[in-house]
Amino acid sequence: MQFAELTCELEQIFGDLAARVPDGPPGHPYFIFHAGVLPVPPLSISTDRILFRKAKSDYNGWYRADALWMYLTPRKCRELGLFLLASGFHGPAETTTLSITHPDSSVRRIIIRASELGLDDPPVGLSWVPFALRYYPSETRRHPWLDNCDTRDLPVLALSNADDSVGPTEEDWEKRDTIWMAASQGMFRLAELLLNAGCSWNEVREYALEGDAGYRGVGPMSAELRIFLPGSHGWIYPDDDVPKPGQDNSSLTP
């Protein structure tokens, strides 16, 4: 069987910087992120080294929440975190799309909403733009923000479609394949978590960002997010990477 050639523009654009960001030990040394050190993300990039499955989280037998299960390597965690930081610091004038091209992925793209500000027509009230992020490699937990759950500072992953306009039928809702995010405190917080998850000394192999019915890790109306790294109980693949496109994984179930 011929496998498709692996393609990951995340690595091509952010791989060099990911290799230079401190790996620890926890708390040392630091790295200052700002627009000057982060590449400007193209309007469209792609990777086949991240894979999503859509699921549901059931609570108390009567409440159900959308759940996204993300499978990736520690290195890809760091590159994805840098993509989120770059999108936040550069405040794109147009939407920025990371296409998830692996054929087995239930999510086909992550779209960062346009966030460029202009004095010709600013939003009502206070406007802010990120200046810098002083990053220290830090220890993590499966539920990373149990002690700090201000919902305004948590990431929101809106599960929708490419047009961000889901039709009224159940079939329309089942076909949702796009994660929409906005540059916010929550997106920066998720980026830091991904950077820490990718550190070589990190022993946490699975993260559960639950909604208000669980151990809070995402903002209101967000889909829940599970992050699975190789070695976690939820990692269903035989190797320490997601399978190559075209590889038969029909026997693998979450």
Radius of gyration: 18 Å
Percent strand = 15-25%
Number of domains: 1
Low-confidence segments, ≥5 residues, pLDDT <50? none
Mean pLDDT: 93
String of helices and strands:
HEEEEHEEEEHEHEE
Number of helices: 4
Class per helix and strand makeup: alpha/beta
What's the total count of β strands? 11
The largest beta-sheet arranges its strands as 2-5-6-9-8
* Major sheet: 5 strands, mixed
Anisotropy-based shape = globular
Level of helix content? 10-25%
Measured distance between first and last alpha carbons: 24 Å
What oligomeric arrangement do these chains adopt? single chain
Description:
With 254 residues, the chain is an alpha/beta fold. The chain has one domain. 19% of the residues lie in helices and 21% in strands. A hairpin with a 3-residue loop joins strand 3 (51-59) and strand 4. The radius of gyration is 18 Å and the shape is globular.
Write the layout of secondary structure elements.
Elements: H1 9-20, E1 31-33, E2 44-47, E3 51-59, E4 63-71, H2 74-90, E5 96-100, E6 109-112, E7 133-135, E8 158-160, H3 170-174, E9 178-181, H4 185-197, E10 206-209, E11 224-228
Parallel strand pairs: 2-5, 4-11, 6-9
Antiparallel strand pairs: 1-7, 3-4, 5-6, 8-9, 10-11
Helix pairs in contact: 1-2, 2-4
